[in-house]
Structure formats: structure tokens, C-alpha cells
Amino acid sequence: MCKIRFITIGYIEWRKGQDLLVDAIKRLPSEMIDITEFIFVGQNTSRLAGQLLEKTKDLPDISVLGILSRENVHNLLDSIDVMICPSREDPMPTVCAEAMMHCVPCLVSDAIGTAEYIKDGYDGLIFHSEDVEELKLKIMWCIEHRDMLKEIGQRSHMIFEKVFSQDAFEKNLIMYVEDMIGKAKP
Q1: What class has domain 4-156?
Q2: Counting Cβ atoms within 10 Å, is residue 108 exposed (0-12), middle (13-18) or buried (19+)?
Q3: Could you give the 3-state DSSP secondary structure of residue 106?
Q4: Which of 67, 132, 171, 182 ranks highest by number of CB atoms within 10 Å?
């Protein structure tokens, strides 16, 4: 069986919560670690990145790739099962919209703006920010329900189409401008 592939993308820093993800991974049962792969993408020369590299050196199948081009990120997303965004705060991470564009379900903290659009267990998964145990349980759920991830990813793509696509942006901008014009008329 192929390993289930998780990815997190972002500058490796406290605010982005990659340390929480590493702590959750370390709590996974060994039989689950054996069937997973975790990929960290982002600037990896920060102090926190060094600490994470040290904490994960004994764990198999954890890769810290550093910065990738947009094209490489999009190519990588085509081979990923779940995007994890463990941020402690992040108003609207672009990486979640990009994952949804690729029909990749997102596992996100409730401290990010994207969580407002996700129905937990239907078109993505949500955990309470900084709750490492809950994050671990959500990762385990993904592993145990791997057969449902494609369907959840397809539904997450609907979020992309409704909220983040260029068509959605244009529609919202037109509605906003029309509303402003209507308010400006005497």
C-alpha cells in the first residue's frame, strides 16, 4: 500500500505552528507512522526550522524541502493526500486555497480564516489551535478513513470554486462596486 502523504507549506516560524505538527506526529502510534509521509515546505533556515529538523531526525519519512517554486508546489500538491495548516494565527493562508484547487482536503486549525469555510468532516477537517492531541487524532482519522479523502477533497474544491477562484473574486468585486455605486447615488 502507498503511504498517505501529508504536507504543510509556509515559512517555518512559531506563528505557523509547524512545531505543533511535529509534536502531533511524534505522538502517532508507530504503525501509523510507518504508513505516512510528512512533507514540510518553506523557508527552512530559521531557528525553529533547525529545532524541528533536530526533533524529527529519528522519524522516518519526514522531509523538510525548503522553499519551492510555485510550479513545484502545484506539482507536489497533485501527489498529496492531505494539506495540514497548523497555524496559531493566519488570516487567510493561500496554501489552503491552492490545496483546494487541487482537490486536496485541508486539516486546519480553527485560528485561520479558511476554517470559516470548512464544515468539519465534510469538506475538510478542523482542530482547535494549539491542541496537539486533537491534531494527532485528526491525522489518525485521515489515516483510518483514507478511502474518504478523495471525496472530501472534491467537496473542498467546491469551496475553492465558490470563494477563492478568479470567477468568485470577479463576482464579489462586481457586487461590491455595484453596492458602492448604489450608495453613492443621491
Answers
A1: alpha beta
A2: buried
A3: strand
A4: 132
